[in-house]
Predict the 3D structure of the following.
Amino acid sequence: MHPNGSALLLTPTRRRTVGVVIAAVLALVGGLLLAYPDRAGAAADPLISGGKSATSSSDESSDLGPQNAFDGDPATRWASVEGKDPQWLSVDLGATADVTRVKLSWEDAYAKAYRIEISADGTTWTRLADETAGDGGTDDWPALTGKGRYLRVYGTARATAYGYSLYEAEVYGTLGGQPPQTGAFTVVAAGDIAAQCTASDSDCAHPKTAALAKKIDPKFYLTMGDSQYDDARISDFRNYYDKTWGAFKAKTRPVPGNHETYDPAGELAGYKAYFGDIAYPQGKTYYSYDEGNWHFIALDSNSFDKSAQIDWLKADLAKNSKACIAAYWHHPLYSSGGHGNDPVSRPVWKILYGAKADLVLNGHDHHYERFAPQNPDGKAVADGITEIVGGMGGAEPYPIEEVQPNSQKRISGEYGVLKMDFTDSGYSWNYIGTDNKTKDTSPKYTCH
């Protein structure tokens, strides 16, 4: 593939369709299997980069982010900004890995020269392979030997006037240090739920989301605020929410939204009267609990400006012994919906990011949206927090208005719930509509 004699550490192989070559290879493989029958069932090293957290030196747009190169979808891609060298794409494999193969599927904007590098800490890099005469298409590096947690493709020379663009970057090998999966469990989550309507109204959505949530039968339920509209009076909770989502109140772990503060009887009066100790298990509007290898933190974003909750959060995180952390509250820091970004949550994000939290769930905007892992300043980073806006539990949908950086998927106008699947070392989810069809499937994430 490189007749001019490129200086390579290793040479990538390319797909060929020449019949004679294929026939010869098949004959050789058949002979080897006859000579060494114990190798007939041997499996190649597995793909270890699928759905893992990714970062890049730049993105051409929010729809062409680094996660696209690891989502298993050949129709999506990562693209860097145009006209600048060098540029890089990096993936966090989630644990130290023995890497044996890397396969790159380039778009028309490919690299003429690039390096494949590996790192234990994402800072100091060791070169695994070096391409100096790239010609696009598919580069398959099948004989690599490297050990580390982070792998990157570092482009040094573009082949075109554009940038660098990869449909897929596949890393193969074996992961080390992975504990056995013993604590898997499922959670259903949604926010913005009970409008003032009942099942007798065909347009009423919360009876349908409740039926879906009940059918999934999770370990427990999370509600991300605004469980009852419009003013969350106790009479409204009893007349509407209780008739649907109230069927599994004992398994629900709620947080308040802004509508729970509008009760004429007093801020959160109806919310507290309805949920009782379920909403105040530790005597406050915020609390925490453990499940499996996960630490869950339920927060009241109506009072993020109060030092008592912030001090409690810091102390709670300092005591945590679980490897994975999820937090949920009502007002999202990032949202492409009508309410948009809410900076009230930024100080909490900074605390959670410092504690290596993995996941944040919010409501408030009435749509579904997932973001790539990012830091509190909105920069996509491998150790960032994944945020989900899940305000599609039954209240009237809001349109998407201004797409935010790192937003990977947005759905408005369809009601549903999040089916969250947690393991000892990671998580993933499906957004399921009230028609029982999966509307979106997340990547599989590994805890920090």
